[in-house]
Write a structure and sequence with these properties.
Number of domains: 3
Oligomer: single chain
Number of helices: 21
Strand order of the largest sheet: 1-2-3
Distance between the termini: 61 Å
Helix content: 55-70%
CATH class of the largest domain: Mainly Alpha
Radius of gyration: 30 Å
CATH architecture of the largest domain: Orthogonal Bundle
Order of helices and strands: HHHHHHHHHHHEHEEHHEEHHHHHHH
Strand content: 5-15%
Amino acid sequence: MPSNRSEARLQDALSDVRRLLDRHRLLETIAARQEGPRRDLLEDLQHRQNVAEFQRRLQVMHAADVAFVLEALPPGDRQAVWAQLTPDRAGQAFVEVSDAVRPSLVETTPTETLERLLSQLDAEDLAYVSESVPDEVVLRVSARLASADRTVFDDSVRFDDQQVGAVMTREWVAVPDTYTVEQAVAALRARGEVPPQTDRLFVVDARLVLVGSVPLQALLVQPPSAPVVAAMLADTPAFGPHDPAIDAVKAFERYDLVSAPVVDDRGKLVGRLTVDAAMDVLREDAELQALRSAGLREDEDLFAAPLVSARNRWPWLAINLVTAFAASRVIGQFEGAIGSLASLAALMPIVASIGGNTGNQTMAVVVRALARERIPTPDAIRLLRKELLVSLLNGAMWGAIVGLFAFGLYASPGLGVVMAGAVVLNLVVAAITGVGVPLLLYSSGRDPAQGSSVLLTFVTDAMGFFLFLGLASVFLL
């Protein structure tokens, strides 16, 4: 139910903005039809009213909702909304908007305005969006940071965006291991406020080396005079700044973490990873996996220029074209059989289709398991045997159904048997491909989802045609 309310809120916000845009265009049309001084007066009045309502609506929207609206609007409307945001709201939305849309906002924003909105960001957020902004703009904005913030910025940008150091925060609460519970609580109160997603205090020794962590609720039940280490969890999961961010996210899911410490090679506390950053990494990774499985190199703006979108899709389309030609040559080898028995042309897409569907199901399971590191190398053979058995069971059942369908349609028992046999064999091929392709990509250090579906489609199509037409040539002609 909360998820439904959240989606409803997003759609309401988008509907409100579209309504304001439509009204703005309508008033402009009416004003354009007026003559003389009344036209200028009406244009000025409608502009002021619409801008005021626009700004009121955008000001009460969450920055993530503003980003959603910007992503959902075509370029002209997107620019109209972007122009009405105050610098602080624009800066917050700029951080939240997707990497694919951010460049379009940069292109349409004057340099001075861009610098002004970037100046509203803290050092970590500025580092996060720096790759989407011209280097000279980033250089000028970062030069205005205070000394401590400039250090944070420089430290953040030196990490790859796929590393923990790029997404961690430098805000945390740490207490010495010599403190009592009372002193720890006093130190917490003295701060006045705590960083977001703070669910624990970190305990460090005299060298600032992490010793453990204390959940906040543990401080409430321990006697004030008890040493803070008595409430400490010594086995706190910790990460290094150079660790892959996606691996840290998996640990967040596994251990139900809200925050976790980040330590350097000497064990010193250098940062904190929070659940909101982990969720961002997880979402971006899931979106990238979905795009790569379809053969796309990167995310793209829904309203990007056609040439930009086309270039993003070229590489795997080229591969797909080659594989399609290869599959067509398989059919070409059996032109005589197809000419002698026309029913083969009508039935062979069924064999290829059911094989492709089975392979996609297998591949989805394998890619998901690889993403969660649940397939050790020794278990790969066991997984393959299991998927082969599943394919044989499915093939026996659905092959019999398809075979009966072919028999009933063409009154040919032989054709029904050939159809059933081809389905069983192609499902076996689909299982081998669905397991093998992701594992081979993974073992070679590549993303197991990248282009997998393109390769799978080629194999199941080509082998489906070959098996069906080959069996028909042997047993029916």
